[in-house]
């Protein structure tokens, strides 16, 4: 298992460009299974989760080519459906969360799919009910094999219907949507997730010949079609990387320019950082973070303590709360970080407390951070990355700390951040990969 050794206290300067979005890549790559024609996808990030999904598709006999860096073509004209029955398929698809989204396309096009318990971060219960119920409503049946711990999904024929999702699940909406585009008749999905990556997936499916309306809202209407065609698609910049760079710049007192951020799709992320007192300057599609000698957390209008909480889009993404939390430790003032969606994502605060941060973990979902201002530097430490976003938060903490820190289990960071050590070293960080 690799590690990072980080010499803290170095300022960053210059320009950095975010990679293509991990979570969009996982959706749109699954969508290539919906057509026998060639689909070209640009701005594909070179990260562990995405590469594992592409390999899984290759193993299913999808023809995959990489004509240029970041560009892939996929052609699913000769899928090996027998492969889905193998232990290898089950093991590989269980290793990442995104692979669950092959189910909708496979069931829609071939009438069968398998679902092992999916991987992804161990950040609390991650149920799949929304996926199951939605795809069942379209006419599929699910049979559980307790020995292999896998669900077999079968559908002779999918039929459009109305459904009200029990929660606005991101991958659940993507999965149901990809099944509904080839179902007969009209499907209406209410309480659909509507974040930018789902908007991108819907736009791509519509270019392939699907008929989805209501894109960007929580009410999607899909008129089923009998086949889909090839297309070309470009993945958005990764908003979680953009947010991580904003926080990193503020906490290390650096002046950086984040290029091509997809600003219009960042929702309330920039304003949420502004609430921590960080100057976030929009320059066209770029974001400039000037040097901060200090930053002071705002209060609510009535003077009460600021809360940064996640919510389904257009609320604040839960994937950035670990970054907000770490950045608040060096702010002036206090903030309540409320992670509503996941119940095990805040435990990494123990490590920040060891580094000298003042944090009260109120319960698994809430932590109060008492910002000490940057006059009190965090101390270097030896850390283990528990999940992808705590991992980047710990990296930011180590970059701002006095002394040399080590972070173990950095596979958890590599899962979502492309060449993060090299890219940060180019703008002044001192990170060594062991
Ligand atoms: C591969 C991928 O795209 N992963 C993302 C996706 O995961 P994923 O699609 O697995 O997450 P879901 O949207 O299904 O739900 C995430 C968690 O939030 C809870 N929940 C969800 C909706 C809701 O209205 N109320 C609620 O409490 C769920 O019970 C679950 O515990 O979306 C999550 C939520 O943005 C992100 O953290 C993940 O990075
Ligand atoms: C939780 C995340 O990923 P996954 O859903 O793949 O575990 C994430 O991207 O923050």
Task: Describe what you observe in this structure.
Keywords: Cell cycle, Cell division, Cell shape, Cell wall biogenesis/degradation, Cytoplasm, Peptidoglycan synthesis, Transferase. This protein is α+β, with helices and mostly antiparallel strands and 434 residues long. The chain has two domains: 3-19 and 237-433, UDP-n-acetylglucosamine1-carboxyvinyl-transferase, Chain (Alpha-beta prism), CATH 3.65.10.10; 22-234, Alpha-beta prism (UDP-n-acetylglucosamine1-carboxyvinyl-transferase, Chain). It is 29% helix and 24% strand. It has 14 helices and 23 strands. The strands form six sheets. Strands 21-22-1-23 form a four-stranded mixed sheet. Strands 2-14-16-15 form a four-stranded mixed sheet, covered by helices on one side. The chain has a four-stranded mixed sheet with strand order 4-5-3-13, with helices on one face. Strand 21 (382-384), helix 12 (388-400) and strand 22 (404-408) form a beta-alpha-beta unit. Helix 8 (239-251) packs parallel to helix 10 (321-328). The longest helix is centred in the middle third of the chain and has 13 residues, at 239-251. It is globular and about 65 Å long. It starts with a strand and ends with a strand. The mean pLDDT is 95. It binds uridine-diphosphate-N-acetylglucosamine and phosphoenolpyruvate. Residues 23, 26, 97-98, 126, 167-172, 193, 312, 317-319, 341-342 line the site of uridine-diphosphate-N-acetylglucosamine (UD1). Uridine-diphosphate-N-acetylglucosamine binds at residues 23, 26, 97-98, 126, 167-172, 193, 312, 317-319, 341-342.
